[in-house]
Structure of Repeat domain-containing protein:
Amino acid sequence: MTARRLTLSFLATGLLGVLALAAPASEGGDYRADSLSGSRLEVWQGGQVRLTLDLKRAFPAAVVAPADLGLGDATSLRVVRVADFDGDGSQDALVAVSFGGNAVPEAYTFATYAGGQLGFTKSFSFWGEVGFEPGGRVVTLTEETGQDALRRRYAYERGQLVTLKSESVPGLKASPQWLASSFDPARSTLAADLNGDGVREILRCEVWDRWSALTCGVQDRQGRDLLPANLGCLRFGVLATRTRGYQDLVCDSRLVGRWNGQRYVFPDGP
């Protein structure tokens, strides 16, 4: 594949956040990916738009995508990262494809512009957090399974999606704890002295049917919320570690909630 200058950008109506990445000197171009989702993907080369993919219009013949990607049913696209994923000296893109709603996970695909065509690989799709291994060429999707997590690994080689060996990620040790997979509604409440003052706080979970998960919270003996009961988890438990005198809590395999002096705070929770 010949060296080329490539810019991938998504256009969305309204305010656009633009991430600018300096290209290598040998490439002599700029690489820009909008930080907001949109229905259009533009390929730039040599300072000009070479190809536009608009989900609301008929696709150009130069767009080559496998049927399983389902671009015709997509509602929006998002550039996750622009990088040389296959190590050939040219820039590619990891693209997330959305199909609307919150009950279907995004599909991920590698995209490359070469020879006047914009090609996409087969997709991979699971609920999970996207990450990258050191070096940035291996993409990971970490999926929560409850007690532990499963890290799925993918690469881009010779224009094809390659599925690598998955890895198990052990969860933090917690006691007591609830698991959504074995939850007993008759045992939805636990009492634990979280701050060592001799008075036990109340931990409570309920089934969240839509997501086959739990919603959990913590109250003191006066009924005050120390953690609002709307945190969704596949696992909820108490860790041995402490913050400001209170034991830490865990949601899923490794998401830790810590006491801030007034209440428990999770990084992505309520």
Observations:
- Residues 66-169 form one domain.
- The radius of gyration is 23 Å.
- The longest strand covers residues 160-169.
